[in-house]
Every structure is written in structure tokens, then in C-alpha cells.
Hints:
The chain is an alpha/beta fold. It has three domains: 2-134, no CATH class; 142-249, Rossmann fold, CATH 3.40.50; 273-344 and 351-466, no CATH class. It is built from 17 helices and eight strands. The strands form three sheets. The protein has a four-stranded parallel β-sheet with strand order 2-1-3-4. It has a two-stranded antiparallel ribbon with strand order 5-6. Helix 7 links the parallel strand 3 and strand 4. The radius of gyration is 26 Å and the shape is flat. The two termini are 34 Å apart.
Amino acid sequence: MAVAKNRQNKRSNALVITEALLVAYIGYIASFILVQLDLIPAPDIETNTVNMFLITITVLLCSLSVGLYEAKLRETFRGIIRRVFVSLGLTYFIVEVVTQTFFDLLQMHPYYLPTAISLNLIAIVFFRYFTNRLGLLGLGRLRLVVLGAGERASIIERRMRRDADRIGIDILGFIPLPGDNREDGIKNEKIIHLKVDQSLRHFLIENDIEEVVIACDQRRGTLPLDVLFDCRLRGVEITDLLDFIERETGQIAVNLMYPSWVIYSNGFHSQNYLRDALDYTLNALLATVMLLLTWPFMLFTAILIYFDDGRRSKAPIFYRQERVGHNGKLFKIIKFRSMRVDAEKDGAKWASKNDARVTRIGNFIRKYRIDELPQLINVFKGEMSFIGPRPERPEFVEQLVKEVPYYNQRHNVKPGLAGWAQLNYPYGASVDDSIEKLKFDLYYVKHQSMLLDILILIRTVEVILFGKGR
């Protein structure tokens, strides 16, 4: 597991460094071309260096904010191009504001910035094309086999169907073991028929296998422990299926969890005492900054809701609803009202896509998360954090606790305005969707850290820009 994570980190670092060098070089080329065309005077070395550095750093941050450096970016090449456009558009806006408003000494020639951004757009699109299509910067794919070809192993086939799901790994095949449920097992993957004795040992050595994933349906009396022990001594990673799915997909397969895995895992409670101690202070500070930036949008939204149907129906602008918070404590969440006042006259219902109960203004503010902004008040009150699982209604929690294993574990942390599940599974309106989101929520609860919070906070920009989520 550590080897694979190290390879993923190396690939991401190589991508960032290479793209940084590319952007900086294109910045130099832009200046060179404009000087040769007599469109701008030749800048001195200091000015040129500062311009290149400012554009490079801004491009990297904006690319990170729209998910372009995610090792497991689940996106078509067309989608990647769209993200590159957004990233460079943000770069142009930020650099223009910084140089024109805050730092007069950094002002660029009017021709330089649009030229540099345009050339970078072309260069990065071509670079991403060859990187993705030809597998450049892969730094070697991790060669692995899966021990098992039954029902448990089939989760790899279902969850990791596309090439984007297997970036950095090369699954040579699945080795059936006695006791595997082949009827509900692997259907379309390569099956490797081997006796689990010395033949398996020779196969692993001859094919330079770096990791073995344990995914058999029955372990007792079926696993070749002596072979696995010998492989581990040789440096081959032996990884449980749950750990493999957690690492590669960023979720925990709750339907496959068993008590001993939970007991021996690193736990579902935060061990970051500094982060816990500063939790409220950091969240209150972020909420203050967010409020200062968004109050005009909030005021405008309130006016729109009032004139849309509030004035006619005397319906409130804000909507308060009971939700389940930290350790199961109930609190009242505050949102801009996006549904009709009689939306739940027949009782609590799951929200759905294209929900007829949503108002005209409600469709827009839900798509871009504007309806969530009043929850800053909940953050100030200490009931919510900026990052965490989305709080659910007690009526639904009561149902989900009965139907979904380990559902209550998501209440080990405060609910949040944004979360890991919203980035990876943007829409949910049923028990099945709640199970899928829980897999990501438990991953967050297990891996919660300040770094992960910052990553989610930055990636939330992607949700807002592309109108994903709820």
C-alpha cells in the first residue's frame, strides 16, 4: 500500500513540476515573441522573472482548484480541456486583479498577459493530451495480481472499470481460490489459473509482481500463507481488498467491512489534537471571510426569493430544518428557501433531480450551492464545520441506521458545508445513494486532517464553477 501511494505521489509531483516548467517557459516565449514583433519593449531580467513566477504559481493553484492534479481524475479528455480553460481563465482574472489593484510595481504590459495565457492554453492542452493518451509521467505502473475471483473480487471489476480508475496500476489478472463464488464473481477480467503453491511463487517472481491484493471469498484454509509470507519478505506488498479499494477509489466499501478490519485499522477518530483544538477558531475565521465575500450575493438572493414567490405567498426567505449533527445531537440548519412552502405536506421526502417542488429561483441557487450560504450562522454557533459529511434529517437517519451498516460512524465528526462525498458523488436521493455517499464519508472520517480539509475546500471551487452537487 505504501509503495502504491508513493508512486501516486511521485506521478502527481512529476506532473506539477513538469507543468510548472512548461508554464514558466511559455511565459518567457510570450515575452520573446512580443519583443521580436516590436509590440512591447524588451523587459529586464527581473521583470521577466517576476512575471513568469506570478503566472506559474497562479496557474498551478487554479489547476489544483479545478482538480487537474487529482491522480484519479474521472474525466474525459474533453472534460480536462474544459477544466484547463477554466483554470487559465481564473489565472487571467487573478493576475489582472493582483497586478492592477494591489501591486503597481507588478503591472504587466497590456499585451503580455493575454498572449501568455493564450499560448499556455494551447501548450497545456497538447501536453495533457500526450500525457493522458501516451501514459507519460507514469513513472512505471504498479504491477499487481488479485488473489480471488469471486464475489468480493468482483467489486474491483465493478468499481474500477475505466482506464482513469486504474491510473498507475497494472492488474495482470485474478487468481481463483477454493471457496470463491464464481457465479457472482469476475466476468470480464483476465483469469489466471494457478495452483496456490510453488507455482504461485514462481509466477509472482517471474512477472515482477509488486503487490498482491487479497480478495478471496473464504480465507480460512484457502490462503497460501507460506507463499505470501515469503513474498512479503521479498518486498512484495500484501494488501487487503478493503485497503486497496480505499486507496484507489477514495472510499470505504461498507458492504465488505468486517469487524477485525475495523479493529486493526487506524480508527475512525481524529488523532490530530492541534486541528481539534483549533477547530472552532479556524471555522469561525473562515466563516467571517466567507461572509464578507458573499454578503452581496446573499442579499440579492434574499430579494429574488421574496419577489419570486415570497411576496405573494408570504413565505419566509429562510428555511430552518432539523438535522443530525456531531454525536447524534440535533440542531436547526438554516438555508435559503428553495422549495414551495407546501413541499412536505405529505411528509418528509427525499429531494430528487428536477424536483417539481423546487421554485424557479430554487433551481439556480441549489445548483450553485448559494442556498447553503446561510449555514455560516450554524458554523458561528459551533454546530457545523466548513468541511465534513453533509447533515441528514433525523427521519432519514433513523431509516438509514437500520438499513446501512456503520452509518452512525459519520456522526463522529461535525457535519460540514462541503465534504469529500460531495466532490466524488455529487447527487443522492435514495437509500442506495446514501450508501454510496457513506463510503466517501467514512473515508473522510478515517483520514480527516488539515491537509485533506484544505484539499476539499479548494476542490469545492470545482463544484461551484461546474454547478455540480446539491
